[in-house]
Amino acid sequence: MQPFRIHTGRVVPLDRANIDTDQIIPKQFLKRIERTGFGEFVFFDWRHTPDGALDRSFVLNQPRSKGATVLVTGKNFGCGSSREHAVWALADFGFRTVVAPSFADIFATNCAKNGLLAVVLGEKEVSDIMQRTTAAPDYQLTVDLEQCRVKDNQGFSAIFAIDEFTRHCLLEGLDEIGLTLEQEAEIAAYEARRQT
Amino acid sequence: MSEPRTLLDKIWTDHVVCLLPGRLPLLYIDLHWVHEVTSPQAFDGLRAAGRGVRQPGRTVATVDHNVPTTPRGTPITDPIAALQVQTLERNAQEFGIRLFDIDSPDQGIVHVIGPELGLTQPGMTLVCGDSHTSTHGALGALAFGIGTSEVEHVLATQCLPQRKPKSMLIQVSGRLGEGVSAKDLALAVIRQIGTDGATGHVIEYAGEAVRSLSIEGRMTLCNMSIEAGARAGMVAPDEVTFAYLEGRRFAPRGRAWDEARARWRHFRSDPGAKYDAVVEVEASPLAPLVTWGTNPGMVVPVTGHVPQSNELGAGEAAGVARMLDYMGLEPGTPIEKIRIDRVFIGSCTNSRLEDLRAAARVAKGYRVAPQVRAMVVPGSQAVKRAAEQEGLHRIFQEAGFEWRESGCSMCLGMNPDILQPGERCASTSNRNFEGRQGRGGRTHLVSPMMAAAAAITGHFIDIRNWQFR
Fold first, then answer.
1. A66 CB near a chain B CB, below 8 Å?
2. Per the CB < 8 Å rule, is A109 touching B146?
3. What is the pLDDT of residues A27-40, one digit of tens each?
4. Which residues does residue B290 pair with via DSSP β-bridges, in sequence order?
5. Would you say residue A39 lies in a domain?
6. 0.90 exceeded by the pTM?
7. Which of these ranges, A166-180, B92-106, B308-322, B342-356, has the smallest mean pLDDT?
8. Are A182 and A189 a contacting pair, CB within 8 Å?
9. Read out DSSP for B20-67?
10. Whole-angstrom Cα distance, residue B267 to residue B237?
11. Is the pLDDT of residue B382 over 80?
């Protein structure tokens, strides 16, 4: 997994609450058996009109989104289906971090397993970022996982909370399965205990 | 005396393998269900790292999401879907995992066949790469959905590093009225607490209305927990649970059964146990519900109407305007005036025998409205056989419903069963998200009885006034 330490990048605002994973990656793209190549399908039904043309009014199709790496969005982001394809698609599109007032549980876990940092900030802070980025298409944010801080170079600064284990794994880009396998003796002992 | 504990506390403590400093608790997983859509990348991950499946005996697979619901034996026409199904077959064989394949008499939706086969049992931990794994909590198991990386983690280690979720008690007092089902209760809970009301929590449903539900009804209720954001939903096992499990193929037998039942009785919250959140719901005033928006919390009684802007909270208006535009609905429209094009009776929420019986009772002696296309998709081959033994298929067919083979079908439209743009569907499934049942499709979530009645009248109608024939 690609480690996440400090990242600075351009911001895309997607000001809607309760965006579900069916929107992030529609079902017709779940049939692939690889982890890669989902980026071009991210938010497919919002990026395309029913006749297949690009919808220029959707933010991800605007020039400001090209090369952007930070997604700022509404509460309960990633609700619904457990499909990890949603995270693969966001990461493959180029996002390194998503900032929102809250995330759905399974989605947040999936993010952590793929080096995509899910940052929870207060509603006010998110709306502050939303206003700043909407006003300035080249607006950038720095997300610092070492200091657990989000800031810009115009005076915005906020700290965020993240559990220590997830932070550690992200900072180091650790293979969590490898970590669990280090506890092989304990797992075997548990299994033996359960069988008696 | 020790501190009173919740059902969640008890199952959790039983399954913590170890707790190392700086690590999350390592939770042992008793049963892991695998299906074709969220597993191929996990098996690839194992191969790439040279790892095996730690406990093939605790891992079970079936195909459900992609399978066609046309008669078995016809090939899967979508080559990518076919490859996914074949990939699961190959992986199951390579790693020694039991697979209920497309031709198996036990095939069905993961969350229908787990309990049906007696594989899901009280006090277990159970996971699957599918958010509706919460369904299995109806038997008093801690069951939750996971992503593909976690699927790989469980395959390799039979464990998951997990933060202990918070607990939420949903206490449902009174009883559901005639014509009001577990589905309506589930929707009422989501309406009350919101689609993120239970984020980070495991819900325990309790109270008279929950106790008086069958196991199938409890499954419907637990199934929808994820739509309120919950990690899982569960109901403490009781005599209803034991009666449901006794004699099922993978349930313990003989002395082992007696021992298991004695052990299972302990899986209930102690009096005075503390929850992180408590929600009270009254069952008796509930009416049959119909969703009008694009998330399951946007729901009103069938006697109500699509909300007007002055009935909405501050900040809701913009989102609602967008939803109504997608749904093709005007504010103030009475729900009973909404006409439908399609009906889907199926999904892990409502495709079990009890659901089909309820729908058939409504359909009996009637005809589906001429402009409506209605399909019934049993949750499993076993449900289908049982329904046919009772003659339910004939009631449906004579009324003009299509009687299909088992699978997830039009709940998420990964197989050919999808809505066309603009089509409006009364659906017994769990998600009315934009495009969920087909791009541009408009989904209204309802109970099986309400769906069957809508098929016949061509619009929503209060099932409490139905003339049964």
1. no
2. yes
3. 999 998 999 999 99
4. B300
5. yes
6. yes
7. B308-322
8. no
9. -TTSPPEEE-SEEEE-TTTSHHHHHHHHHHT---S-GGGEEEE--SS-
10. 7
11. yes
- A61 falls within a domain: yes
CATH of the domain at A74: 3.20.19.10
Residue listed under structure tokens 């990048």? A9
Query: What is d(CA B399, CA B383) in angstroms, rounded to the nearest whole number?
Result: 20
User: Taking the CA of residue A144 as centre, how many other CA atoms within 13 Å lie in the half-sphere pointing to its CB?
Assistant: 11
Helices (H), A51-183: 85-93, 105-113, 123-135, 164-172, 176-181
- Residue A104 token pair: 């759905």
Q: Which domain holds residue A146?
A: 6-195
Read off the pLDDT of residues B149-163 as tens digits, 9 standing for 90 and up: 999 999 999 999 999
| A142 reaches B (C-beta below 8 A) | no
Residue B143 near residue B134, CB atoms below 8 Å: yes
Which chain A residues are closer than 8 Å to B256 by Cβ?
none
The pLDDT tens digits for B312-323 are: 877 778 889 999
Cα B423 to Cα B326: distance, rounded to the nearest angstrom: 11
User: Of A108, A86, A100, which Cα lies nearest the Cα of A12?
Assistant: A100
Provide the domain count of chain A: 1
Which of A17, A33, A84 has its CB closest to that of B319?
A17
Residue A111 lies in a domain: yes
Alpha-carbon distance of A83 to A76, in angstroms, equals 16
Is pLDDT of B1 > 70?
no
Residue of A nearest to B436 (CA): A22
Q: Do the Cβ atoms of B129 and B147 come closer than 8 Å?
A: yes
A1 is a domain residue: no
Task: Label residue A196 by pLDDT band (50, 70, 90).
Answer: low
Give A42-101 pLDDT, tens digit per residue: 999 999 999 999 999 999 999 999 999 999 999 999 999 999 999 999 999 999 999 999
- Give the residue carrying structure tokens 């919460």: B134
Q: Which of residues 16-35 of A touch B (CB under 8 A)?
A: 16-18, 20, 22-23, 26-28, 30-35
Buried b (16+ CB within 10 A) or exposed e, A114-149: bbbbbbbbeeebbeebbebbeeebebbbbbbbeeee
